[in-house]
Here is the input.
Amino acid sequence: MRTILLIAALFVGIVTNGQDKNNVQVEKQGDLYKVTLLHKNGSVAQTGYVSADKKLQGMWTSYDVHGKKKSIGNYSDGQKVGSWFHFTTSSDVFTHVTYGLDNKIASVQESMTRSQLADNDIEE
Here is the structure.
């Protein structure tokens, strides 16, 4: 019994200690909350919006620790929708994933260039 309590106490301590509230910034904007998650080095890891009922909403963008864009896409009521772009390390080549209304992947196009992205009139 004593061992179980010790393990439980260690688990609670590790989980609580691992959640650094300084790595999350929240700002209310109308009916939504703009959330910015930071890497340990202070650079932006992700930014996007959350509804009052805690569902991801609207445009979300994620970045690597050097500030290069990793992915960008939209959520609706907590589900991925529409076009999502996942960039390679060079950020010149990316994968375009399209989600259908049922949150399932409808199509995938790989190795497009940034000029093709601009030609498709997709905003970042």
